[in-house]
Amino acid sequence: MSVPAIRAEEARSPHEVPSTWGRKRLRCLVSQPIRNDSGVFASNGSVPLRDNIGTANESGPIHHWRDVPANFTWNPNPDARERQEDLLISVSAATLGEAYHATEYINGMKNVGRVLRLTPNPDMDSSFLVYWTQSLDYWNQINASAAKERSFPRDTAMIRNLRVPTPSLETQRRIARFLDRETGQIDDVIGKKKVLLDELTEWRESLIARAVTGELNSGVSTKTSGVGWVDNIPEHWRVLPLKRLLNSSTRGTADRLQPSGEVAVLREHNLVNGEIDFGDLGFLSEAGNAPILAVGDVVLNCAGGMESFGNASILRDGANLRVSFSSELVRLRFQGLYNPEFANRVIGTKIFNSFRQTAIPPSIIRGNAAFTRFVQIRVPVPPIEEQFRIVSHLNDMVGRINHAKELINSSIGELGEYRSAIISEAVMGKLGELQ
Fold first, then answer.
1. Domains within the chain, CATH numbers bracketed
2. Cα angle 199, 203, 209; round to 5
3. Rounded to the nearest 5°, which phi and psi values hold at 242?
4. Cα–Cα distance measured from residue 160 to residue 144, given in angstroms and rounded to the nearest whole number
């Protein structure tokens, strides 16, 4: 992947373009922009449709135009006839400025939210225009214009008045071809790295599931577990319902939360893949009657839908602050015969959660009956010394897997930044002779 050098004479400020280029308002480069509040996307029905403003339809919302699958296209109202190369720009508050390129028409329609439909003039290449909407120049203008508004703009003047770099049509096409090639290669590498991330995630989940069900104990006699989510376990292991392993279960505080205070309060979104994410916390000015977590406490989500109910995370050492939890969460403290880290691993396995979703009917998912049913689920119980060995092995292996994922995610982020930089440089004429 070759990257053209930036010529010294073209090292201009971010808003400047080559002297042979122009700068024109977006409204001058497209046919009369059409605001569609009841426009529709067209779909072949093979992928669920989501709109751009977070208004849930039958398939739920998305937050970015770029998340719309490639086979979703624009089919406007009868008074706004479609063209294949139309550009759609969101003018809703949640996704202001996000753009989507309509490339073909497919039958079948669904409603979508507020968008501005732009049909490029013959002297404007639609692909170049789409790349420009991904550039730093475009987003700097969007953010600067939005910051000047006292409230969210209800007309499309802000979008229509954006200043677009305008090289010749041939140069636009040449830049678009270059970016197609370069971003295509970058996207291919990113795609392969994401596949590797998925494989590492599956390996981690498989490793944990095999460890907590005894499958890693080679050469050990096994027996039928009698548990709906595990076939066989080592013969010397026991099986008990979770409630027999608990010392206590405590519901969290319903006190009103503050943006700051002496006591941090965990909520549902702070429970992530068995660990506690200390971002976006609520606070209490003082503990009062709120229960305080200790190291080794497992926090269980008892709210939300079937997917989120039963998610659990453990409080590890090093929090460096007093931590409570909100009323949708329950603190689990285990007896000495059940290692809390082992319990946290068990509750976090896919096979456990799949069984949990069948064992707890959706009709009771938000009530106390759901928790009562949850703690009746039976789980494998190795001897406590073996639990510690399994936990130590998993912490080591999972730590290595997570480190590998961090490195891959970091490289994906760097590739994304590189991709954005190439686009931003190219559409502003800063890459010199494109190879």
1. 22-166 (3.90.220), 215-381 (3.90.220.20)
2. 145
3. -55, -35
4. 14
